[in-house]
Amino acid sequence: MAKQHDQQFKEEAVEYYFDHKDLGLRGCAENLGVGYSTLSKWVRIYSTNNGTIPTRGSGNYASDVEKENARLQRELRDAKDALDVLKKAISILGK
């Protein structure tokens, strides 16, 4: 499972990069213990969002409609996965 980082850590990591540009993104990422592409994404987001990194944690929805939409999407995905398993089982048993 991917390591979760809070917003403060992300912003401090980006600031660390800006303070240590001589190390480059790869060197800063290694020092911080995060992936190169992860730090690169945080820097890009930070630069385009006026010095902040908006985050969305699990269960952190802007409205009840978004929360319900996410629940329904999960339910649909799970139903599709179950249907795929059943289709495979039928094809195996039907031979």
UniProtKB/TrEMBL annotation:
Alphabetized GO MF terms: DNA binding; transposase activity
InterPro entries linked: Homeodomain-like_sf (IPR009057), Transposase_8 (IPR002514)
SUPFAM superfamilies recorded: Homeodomain-like (SSF46689)
Species of the source: Thermoanaerobacterium xylanolyticum (strain ATCC 49914 / DSM 7097 / LX-11)
Annotated GO biological process: DNA transposition
Sorted UniProt keywords: Coiled coil
Keyword check for Coiled coil: yes
Transmembrane stretches, start-end: none
Superkingdom in the source lineage: Bacteria
Gene3D superfamilies linked: Homeodomain-like
Chain segments annotated as coiled-coil in the UniProt record: 62-89
Protein name listed in UniProt: Transposase IS3/IS911 family protein
